[in-house]
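Predict the 3D structure for this chain.
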Amino acid sequence: MTRTTKVFRDFHEYAVRVQPPSRPDRNIALEMIRVTEAAAIAAARWAGRGDKNAADGAAVDAMRFVLGAIAMDGIVVIGEGEKDEAPMLYNGERIGDGRPPLVDVAVDPVDGTTLTAAGRNGALSVIALSERGSMFNPGPCVYMKKVAVGPRGRGSVDINASATDNLRELSARLKKPVQELGVVILDRPRHDSLVEEVREAGARVLSISDGDVAGAIATGWPNSGADVLFGIGGTPEGVIAAAALKGLGGEIQGILHPRDAEEQRYAESLGYDFSRVLTTDDLVASDNCFFSATAITDGDFLRGVRFYDFGATTQSLVVRSRSGTVRTIETFHRHDKLQEFTTTGF
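Done. Predicted structure below.
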């Protein structure tokens, strides 16, 4: 039994396939940019207005509308929740126009809903695709412990090592004093001791209030100031970040982290292992994955949506792992043309 077949059997409840898998042979990420652009513009309408649910709902509507026109047979592995809780982009939903290639899809219409609602920096709209059966399904596992680095730091970190030891190894690999290392950590009470250890080691803490995906990507982006990400964050966000870091040449490691004993028992009954180190390839097994992100608000590597009398501008990051191509794209959107391909009220 191949690895892909096992992942397919264990983690996906797909309909019986009547045709063999079709490997993506075009850069679908260049089409996914339309998806994240639409979601980002829709969410940006709500930036700073204090309503994170409205921002997320607008982004979901826009993303789902545009996805319906993409030439692919996609199944949502990471979405907005189960079908009875999310009317669109729910886990298991089939998206695209039904034609090959067959792909797994992970979406986060707004990575940083609180950031968007408050009008703060760092919110993104993101989507990741990989070949069918290759994307890790978090199931009931909401959180995972993570460590992520960019291409220069790949191979120098170990999630089972202490933060201090990892910083020393990373410092040697990057030929950069520990005091100059930037460490991304989510601002949560659970990370108080981690923050203290990092500071005692001499490194600089780059605290973020939200935005797991953006934080991981920043480690692989030149001049972001981020060298490594530590801490416990969302498992779905870890999978999406893995798709991005594959293309950027970075690395992410994760260990599932239960919220309580009941969640751990239930997950273990489904076959999840809370002692296993999940590598980048475990999270996204395909060597041909795609990632697109469009900034909703300003961030370390992309400028947020800007509204003008003619329409709007967006900046996006588009990555394909097989070719190693990383593109940043600035797009000008006219209001009248936006109205032609969406019903979400731009």
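The chain has eleven helices and 13 strands.
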